[in-house]
Amino acid sequence: MFSRVRQIRDENSETPGDFLNEVHKWSLESLGLIALDTRLNCFDASEDSESMRLIHAVQTFFLSVGELELRAPWWRIYPTKMFRQYVEALDTILSVTLSHVEKALKEIEANGGSKSLLQDLVTAAGPRVAAVAALDLFLVGIDTTSNAVASILYQLSLRPSIQERLYEEITKVLQNRPMKPGDVNQMPYLKACVKEVMRMYPVVIGNGRQLTKDTVICGYNIPKGTQVIFQHYVMGNSDDYFYNASEFKPERWMTRSPAQKHHAFASLPFGYGKRMCLGRRFAELEIHTVICKMIQAFKMEYNHEPMDYHIHPMYTPNGPIRIKLTDR
Ligand code: HEM
């Protein structure tokens, strides 16, 4: 990704206005490698390529699903423009997914064994289950991770001293050799920085459950069947749960001091329990690797008006992410 970033920097060494789109491509490329063991070559993809159609379809899906589900369901009476776009996006995602499942089936037949997560799934559970699982991966694995990375890069670009500490940690562990599995376990500050951004700016601001039995929460009797929402954003930014919650302080994830220690459930950006994020380990692997490489390669600065965050529907910086990248 960082060699790509060098190519697309403008004459002021800043990332271009559509940088988030580049991060989406990186995210799909990483998912392709993890789930399909395939290079999709997203960075070289033309606008009408399968990869770009998939990226746009996932964005359309996320932008319309909330509107269609939560507002008056006119689409039940007649197919509104948004409903038609939504169905078209789902058709695109399904057809791309099915083409990969077919490819996986053919490769298994040809090679007599599986070499990707998708091929494992096809072998273990059959093409139908594999197709549904792959659909889920594409649907929720691209934008979540890319918006998290965009947000982390932006937050770090506002904080040079934190970048320096990260650079020291990374250099000490890697000693100028390429990254290998297990390295990130020697980088507690890197992990803490990612957790801190996810605490203050969780890409998924909340997640819901329907209670399966009558439950008492904070002294309130909540009957079975009620929808309850765990507000990641509210909890993560509350002084009730985090010491000086408005301060960006990665050390809070490394401290053992009881006075500053927060409850283990106070920030759950990947959810919890049976329905927690299935892709958490993938996402963390991707995020830690890319942030590590970016910090190794560049000093980052943000020299424009501070950006607000908005829900789009991921919680993400609202505006072009123009980060000045100076080679180290
Ligand atoms: C920073 C990146 C990500 C964040 C913040 C995130 C967050 C979440 C959250 C909050 C949930 C709901 C959990 C719950 O209800 O307890 C979820 C579900 C899910 N996520 Fe992620 N996710 C990320 C990346 C990914 C990736 C990369 C994949 C796949 C490769 C993925 C696959 C899934 C799936 C399949 C579910 C549904 C699980 C279920 O309903 O049983 N996620 N994610």
Describe the 3D structure.
With 328 residues, the chain is mostly helical. It has a single domain, classed as Cytochrome P450 (Cytochrome p450). Helix content is 51%, strand content 9%. The protein has helices spanning 2-8, 19-36, 50-70, 81-111, 117-141, 143-157, 160-174, 188-200, 232-236, 280-297, and strands spanning 206-210, 215-217, 220-222, 227-231, 298-301, 309-311, 315-317, 324-327. It has a two-stranded antiparallel sheet with strand order 1-4. Helix 2 (19-36) packs across helix 6 (143-157), helix 3 packs across helix 4 and helix 6 crosses helix 8 (188-200). The structure holds protoporphyrin IX containing FE. The site of protoporphyrin IX containing FE has 23 residues, from helix 5, helix 6 and helix 10. Protoporphyrin IX containing FE is lined by residues 31, 136-137, 140-141, 144-145, 148, 203-204, 207, 269-273, 275-279, 282-283.
Q: How would you concisely characterize the structure shown here?
A:
This protein is mainly α and 328 residues long.
